[in-house]
User: Fold this.
Amino acid sequence: MVESLFSINSNKLRGTKKTGWLDITESYFGLEKKIPYFVIYGKEDGPNAVITAVIHGDELNGIPLTYKIFNSINPQKFYGNLVMLPVSNIPAFNVQSRYLPDRRDLNRLFPGKPDGSEGSRIANTIWNLCIKDADFGIDLHSASYNRWNFPHIRGNMRLERVRYLAKIFGAEIVIHSQGVLGSLRREATKRNIPFILFEAGQINRFEEEPLEVGLSGIWNILYSLKMVKYQNSKISKTIDTSIYYKKSSWIRATHGGLFVPAVKPGDFIKEGDYLGHIMSLLGEVKDKIKAELSGRILGFNLHPQVVPGRALFHVCHDEKSL
Ligand SMILES: [Zn+2]
Assistant:
């Protein structure tokens, strides 16, 4: 079994930073495939924190976030330990896909098994490496194919410790979503390791807004949990972090044609508001899309070509106090 990156925190390592590669699986050539990792071993005692990125192989926005965090922390002035995996799902990343080469979703396979499927073994290695000994974690994602998500936090808001992490992160939008069975956040949280998911932007890109919001949120958490003594967050404190949304739902296309949105992620909407339309290939408006309830646009479809049933807008609604 792979040794936890937290458990090798001997006194010798205190106050140091470490980068490295660890064997995670083997290629078709029979050669080792490795994942990169960062560890900050704080000089002082404090929590064990973990940040994972690229659990889905094409959701890249989290990668530069881990670099920025790693490069700006002084381990001599750090309390606790921080492990980061900038590219967790190397086999999927290698083929520029959300999914593993056997078409499974790594984020359905946690905590994994040492003798399971290829994805289950990878999940289990990651689990032993940096999840099981963590006190809390943040998992970095982006919207799936042809969608864009407003930077937001997801987690099981029924649990106080998860709500607390969401609150101190300071995201503009927080939604209750415990995650599907086998997802990292759900399985870790179930085992008393509170996890939140930061979801921002789109696949296959490094985007500025997700980076800025994510960086500020992580700094807010490190500062609030006293892992760092200085505040490095650049986002203004005017954001209302007093509520979360209990539910989210999709508004879907009723006709095929060309989708023309009139609102964007982050916008507040009221029941009956005009959100956009679907145009025929002759340029006529076929269907006006109206809001069926009040809430906030969380994400939307980026591709103009749509068919009936295609998800157009992801809307969060039903506010509750955080
Ligand atoms: Zn994802």
The radius of gyration is 20 Å. Helices lie at 62-72, 90-94, 118-131, 160-169, 184-190, 208-224. The first strand starts at residue 16 and ends at 26. The CA atoms of residues 295 and 317 lie 4 Å apart.
